[in-house]
Specification:
22% of the residues lie in helices and 42% in strands. By secondary structure, the protein is α+β, with helices and mostly antiparallel strands. The N terminus is likely disordered. The relative contact order is 0.15. It has 2 domains: 162 residues, START domain (Alpha-D-Glucose-1,6-Bisphosphate, Chain A, domain 4, 2-Layer Sandwich), CATH 3.30.530.20; 145 residues, Alpha-D-Glucose-1,6-Bisphosphate, Chain A, domain 4 (2-Layer Sandwich), CATH 3.30.530. A hairpin with a 2-residue loop joins β13 and β14.
């Protein structure tokens, strides 16, 4: 698989997301269909679900309301969405129609979206659950990308909620992680922290584990902007990475993909990364969410160090911000 083919455009502006949750399928299903549980995770980071009702029967209606700040309209809003259950097969399949009450609240128009269909499959994978989520058709790439970021952010909250619902669940030391969720507070204004993530000359100063240096060749912080950088290990070995900025809303949040490349320029694995920033107590709270979208057989040896690698990089980011 070449680097160029890792993120192929979706035909007809269809959205498809696959996530692996560290929870049994019955619990995942319940969290999707039980209104009180769904309210804990529905909506992207920065939003709180205030109402969620649904039906367990075909033809029944569902609806949700959530409150939060929408950067594109620069104000707090209450968003409403809903539809009709079209097919339901517990605990493996859920199909329903999906529509916004007012697309203008999220900065879109009727030229961007219409009533869509959502299809969610749940499959068992050992003690975990593979969720395959499909939504469409969208009328524009902008609308598709915006919903991709929103749903992935909601699924990040879902992953955290699943772990909270299983306080006694033991982590397998041999497990290869497919998800990573980190929070880090920086005693610096949000605008500066955002710059440190999006300006290539600043990224080059902290990206990569300690004792690594990074050459940033492309870091285009805009929708569909290209990423290409090379991390240099202490032994001189280069570790190239390509990627794309999917959506960016300064200085609040952005989503981007990254692919680790082998010597032939082929992707060994590709991650989706979301960064959410909040003003907290005179500084900035950064929430980093990462999930593995695609991987090859050589990926596990790298993915097992994902948490440590990101933690060390964020340490370096904190040191850089102190100097500014």
């Amino acid at each position: 698989m070449s680097a160029a083919s890792v993120m192929e455009p979706l035909k007809g502006y269809e959205l498809k997301i696959t996530r692996v949750f560290d929870a049994p399928r019955e619990l995942v299903w319940k969290a999707w269909t039980d209104p009180e549980m769904a309210k804990h995770w529905m909506g992207p980071r920065g939003f709180k679900a205030t109402e969620f009702t649904t039906s367990q029967e075909v033809g029944g209606k569902w609806q949700m309301s959530m409150e939060g700040f929408v950067p594109v309209v620069q104000q707090m809003v209450t968003l409403h969405q809903g539809g009709v259950v079209q097919e339901i097969k517990p605990p493996e399949l859920l199909v329903y129609s999906f529509a916004w009450r007012d697309a203008g609240d999220i900065g879109l128009t009727n030229k961007d979206i219409q009533e869509m269909t959502v299809i969610v499959h749940f499959a068992e994978k050992g003690k975990k659950t593979v969720m395959t989520f499909t939504q469409g058709p969208f009328l524009s790439e902008k609308a598709r990308n915006g919903h991709t970021g929103g749903w992935n952010s909601a699924f990040d909250k879902f992953a955290e909620f699943m772990l909270a619902e299983q306080p006694g669940r033991a982590e397998d030391p041999d497990d290869v992680p497919s998800e990573l969720h980190l929070k880090r507070f920086f005693a610096a204004p949000r605008e500066l922290v955002f710059d440190a993530w999006t300006k290539p000359e600043m990224v080059a100063q902290w990206w990569g584990p300690r004792h690594f240096t990074t050459t940033v060749e492309k870091w285009e912080a805009k929708g569909c902007g290209e990423i290409y950088a090379v991390m240099h290990a202490p032994n001189g070995m280069g570790h190239p990475m390509s990627g794309t900025f999917v959506e960016i809303q300064a200085p609040y949040r952005f989503h981007f993909t990254t692919a680790a490349l082998d010597k032939q320029g082929n992707a060994m694995f590709e991650n989706w990364n979301s960064v959410f920033m909040e003003d907290v107590e005179g500084g900035t709270l950064v929430t980093l969410d990462v999930h593995v979208m695609r991987q090859t057989e050589v990926a596990p040896m790298y993915l097992k160090g994902m948490r440590e690698g990101w933690s060390l990089s964020l340490d370096k980011l904190g040191e850089l911000l102190v100097k500014q």
